[in-house]
Amino acid sequence: MNKKILLLFAVFATFYSMATNRSVEPKVIGEYAAHFKWNKWTITDVQRQELTPLLEILKTHPDATVEIVGWADPTGTLTANDIVSTRRATNVAEYLIQNGFPAGQISSRGAGVDSSTDDYEQARRAAVTVRVMIETPETETEPAQPDPQSVADDVSEQQPDPTTSAKENEQVPETETIEAENTASDRGIVDIVPYPRKRGIFSLRTNALYWVGAMPNLGIEWKPIHQLGIVVNGGYAPWGNNGWKKNWGGWFVAPEIRVYLGERKVWFVGPQFLAGGFNLKPKDKGYQGSVVAAGVMGGYRLRLSSCWDVDFSLGMGYGWFKYDTYRRQNDLNVYISSDLKKNTLMPIQAGVSFIWKIQ
After folding, report:
1. N or C end of the chain: smaller count of CB under 10 Å?
2. Domains of the chain as residue ranges with CATH
3. Which of 30, 233, 212 is CA-nearest to residue 131?
4. What does DSSP assign to residue 230?
5. What percentage of the chain carries pLDDT values higher than 70?
């Protein structure tokens, strides 16, 4: 009987201890962010200045816990964005450790793309949340702390490659490999892994202005890297038969190379080429021949969503024409002049193009 009483007393004491020492939800005492340029993750003077208020509050709250989440903007591949966001969080965590904050009180992870904001500068950041435990009035027990050994193991895995973090403004290599896209974010910890072999991004495009001019057209763009695009546009309008009194037909192929400029890479400029044929008879006199042209084009690309863009472009250059002139008589072409040539400055293209990005 005494053993049963002792057992009941032990169970009661255990439950009482658990009830009086239950964990308390931590309170958020501060939220901070360090912002980065496109494809950058290294801590520079800009990020140090942004993190100065964070260091001050951590000095006054040495028992706080810190959660760091890295983010990226929607540009680039999903895999690269996961890694860039992870490295941003890792480097901020390393910076706090270097300034004396305990590694065991830090957790960090990369969250990939932040689609909640249209401001890409705001999306490229490492967000820092600082929490402290609140003691309940009825107990003087100290707030629960993370297990030092488990957190230390996490942080040891989070340390960046010294050869990588030492390089300012390092760009993503194109010849390395990477783990599965969701590896870093699924584990909830930071892993510094090699950067992926970028296979580029393909897009299909069509110029709305050419459709207005009765020229069906389609183009493709390949971006092997974020700063460079290789575009080939083409179009064909059927030529009229001998029974037509008027004609508006032709074809063209127009390759171009685009260099994207600025931090957001929305402005572009580059060389453009054009080759095509035409058969135009707006009134009584017709023109039939070929053209070759080369020049420079530029424009602006407006990002609408993760799948759709629209760009505005204009190209000027020098064209070489070779053509014949004719009239229609008794449903036949009666040629007026043959093998005419003309070289002139000319607009190579004017476009409002809708773009579908193939991820």
Report:
1. N
2. 23-187 (3.30.1330.60), 201-358 (2.40.160)
3. 30
4. E
5. 71
